[in-house]
Specification:
By secondary structure, the protein is α/β, with parallel strands linked by helices. Helices cover about 40% and strands about 20% of the residues.
Length: about 220
């Protein structure tokens, strides 16, 4: 990646997201269910589709949550942007740095902080949960919280995931889905399917409430 993009891209990107955050009306749905999880000792595993990952950045800033981000050049740019909002990038994927990223996630969870996933990233297929989140959920027993995100004003790119860039002066709906718990005995494929179904349901509900189609 060009050094100038790495130098100027993150501050420009963070500045843009602050503008979006300051002009957007956020709707948080299912917040009572999320707060109820406070009775459960320990952190959460959260899941949001890759193409909507920018939606929750501003309202959930400065909570020291870990976020799983690929080791690609695009991942480097995203890492520097989300760091400006108090997130902790955890770099790696199932194909690059898989063992190291798992250890880092376990350490972050052990310190009491949430870890967020885009479970269909970094390469897709779109809206198909990859094994990483399912494996960690089964290994740790930590609750999985699906986070559906809908945006009323956005640009949709022609990338593999049809990435959505929120625009200022719109509405963003954060819809928490069904909280899921798993054990080491659960088949990994079934866990992936259950997470995917819950995340699709939350995402479609968020889009439907805003009157937009799910691309």
């Amino acid at each position: 990646m060009h050094s100038a993009l790495l130098r100027w891209g993150p501050p420009l990107g963070a500045g843009y997201l602050r503008l979006v955050g300051a002009t957007t009306r956020y709707q948080l749905v299912g917040e009572d269910a999320k707060r109820a999880l406070g009775r459960i000792e320990g952190p959460l595993l959260t899941a949001c589709w890759h193409n909507r990952l920018l939606g929750p950045v501003y309202p959930y800033r400065n909570q020291h949550a870990g976020v799983a981000i690929s080791q690609s050049d695009d991942g480097e740019l995203i890492s520097r942007v989300v760091e400006a909002f108090g997130f902790v990038p955890i770099r790696g994927s199932s194909s690059r740095g898989g063992a190291q990223v798992l250890r880092t996630m376990l350490r972050h969870l052990g310190q009491g902080y949430d870890v967020g996933f885009t479970p269909d990233g970094p390469r897709g297929p779109r809206y198909v949960v990859q094994p990483g989140l399912a494996h960690l959920a089964c290994r740790t027993g930590r609750p999985v919280l699906p986070v559906g995100v809908g945006m009323s004003r956005k640009l949709v790119f022609s990338s593999w995931d049809r990435f959505q860039l929120p625009l200022p002066f719109g509405r963003i709906r954060i819809q928490f889905g069904e909280v899921l718990r798993f054990t080491r005995d659960d088949p990994l494929g079934d866990v992936q399917q259950r997470i995917g179904a819950a995340l699709i349901a939350a995402t479609e509900a968020a889009d439907r409430a805003l009157g937009v189609r799910s691309p």
